[in-house]
Amino acid sequence: xxxxxxxxxxxxxAFIMSSCSKDPQSxxxxxxxxxYRAVGYEGYGxxxxxEDGTNARTPVDGTIPFQTNRDNIMNVFPYPHPNTPxxxxxxxxxxxxxxxxxxxxxxxxxxxxxxxxxxxGANGQGDGGAGKKQAILxxxxxxxxxxxxxxxxxxxxxxxxGKNAMGAHQYQISxxxxxxxxxxxxxxxxxxx
Amino acid sequence: xxxxxxxxxxxxxxxxxxxxxFSLISITAFAQPDGGKLFDSQCKRCHNIxxxxxxxxxxKDVRSRWSSEDNLIAWIQNSAEYLKTGDAYAVGLYEKYNxxxxxxxxxxxxxxxxxILDYVDAExxxxxxxxxxxxxxxxxxxxxxxxxxxxxxxxxxxLSILIYSLYSMSSSLITVLKHRxxxxxxxxxxxxxxxxxxxxxxxxxxxxxxxIVGLLVTVVVLIGLKFVxxxxxxIGVYTNYQPHQPIKFSHKxxxxxxxxxxxxxxxxxxxxxxxxxPSASTCMNCHKGVKxxxxxxxxxxxxxxxxxxxxxxxxxxxENYNQKPYEEMASLYENWLGDGDAYxxxxxxxxxxxxxxxxxxxxxxxxxxxxxxYKVGGxxxxxxxxxxxxxxxVYQYSPLTMGWCINCHRDTxxxxxxxxxxxxxHDYLSKRxxxxxxxxxxxIGGLECGKCHY
Lengths: 193, 454
Prior knowledge:
The complex is a heterodimer.
Chain A: H1 2-19, H2 33-36, H3 85-90, H4 102-115, H5 117-120, H6 129-133, H7 152-161, H8 175-190
Chain B: H1 2-28, H2 35-43, H3 62-65, H4 69-77, H5 79-83, H6 88-96, H7 110-126, H8 128-132, H9 147-180, H10 191-208, H11 210-233, H12 251-257, H13 262-265, H14 280-287, H15 299-308, E1 310-311, E2 316-317, H16 326-337, H17 340-346, H18 370-376, H19 381-385, H20 402-411, H21 423-432, H22 449-452
Antiparallel strand pairs in B: 1-2
């Protein structure tokens, strides 16, 4: 009998324990919500004053952001070449405003690892993880005949507006960073050929 | 004798079985249909709980609009079937909403529908402005957690049944003993009398054994205090909070299997206080080409298209998407998906921003800056956010309590080397201290109140 009683007690204890685990759909209790929640509008919050109901805004047309760092001043100026075949051809004349150095190359490599490697692969061979899942995301290798002589302006244009299945990356990578990235991509163009 | 024992055992077993059945029923009686959950899963895509019209009418005061509740229930269960009865109000509704009938819900029982209607009424009488506001981004509506109370009630019921059956067993045994001694007494007390005797017996036992009772009471009180203490410690700690997101975006596939860097989407982490949620255009970098996922097919990707205005048939963005008539856009995505169920999931995304549910929430009185930690401090995302690359659905990994922040600031060594942010401080410190001296964040002011609270 003792055995059964202890068994019963154990079972009910386990039942209590398991039913105390938190519901993952609920964050739980909050201590003094008026100190937790901002009175002002927070990023990404809803905002009834705007038609689309969100706080996320796009910059006002015809304005550029204020830039204190003179080195990055080019980031705020609009990109002159449109996303058209003519724009692509015209971009070939652009020259890289950032002089080549080992430090710039290292920075370019960091940017490449963060933004390009999952499609273009670690060595620019087009063997990234995304292509293994979806064949449409396999780009040509940088040192292939198709791409190895691509001028730096066109590389910059392709990162800015995208090309074929690739999307526009100007919203994620600033202009200065894109030019640094061009240095690194050029080093991959020359590699192994 | 053995014959009598068998009879007795059979009797007791029978009674125990009946009693346990009773206890089972008493537990399951708590599991009534949850109107809120049913509403969220079945109705929310087309109906607002308040007055506003979505695809169908708002549900405020829906009961009073119908001639009888049975008609309303029949309509909800199968509207096409109900239309055949020619109810004037139903036909009017059908005409008013462009002759698009509500889909049939054969899975909803009458009780389910009543639970949903009760939920709608309760929500409307509670807080209409909360019900109308878009849920999601804030996503912190608290629900009272009654499960513990139910458990305690269930335990109390089970224990009292146990005590009662033990008592009846002992009285049956006494009857057996009396029978052996030749006394032919039959226990003819009623069940209630027995229960009363049982209680009396317990009371007199408690009077005789005050020490044991005192000990038991102390133990119960201590366990109760421990419960209270633990639940107080959990207030404001959201570890393991794992809400469903509007789009079933899998970090496991994107960050894990494909190996996309966190920064690719959360670009703000290098520059700003917030790591930023990517805009839908970031998704489109790949998904203008990849239109069907391996795991969820077209549905989840169609939600992005419906939000941003991308025409997957023509492979082009739709000009002035948000000004286009809703019906036209809706039919575009319905045709592309070619599946009513899939389309209903996408419906609420058309011409709307995607409202992700916030998981990590720091109180307003604490300041945190992502760029400071990621770019200057060189802290990996995983240190605080855990193995996101393995999470199918993201949950909060760290407690984000003040103690947790402080402990990390006490232990983490500042990376001065090749860190332009700390050039001046590094020069000053290296003149004052030995070369190669290590400093934790707390030594350079990482524990000052004003660093985070201002």
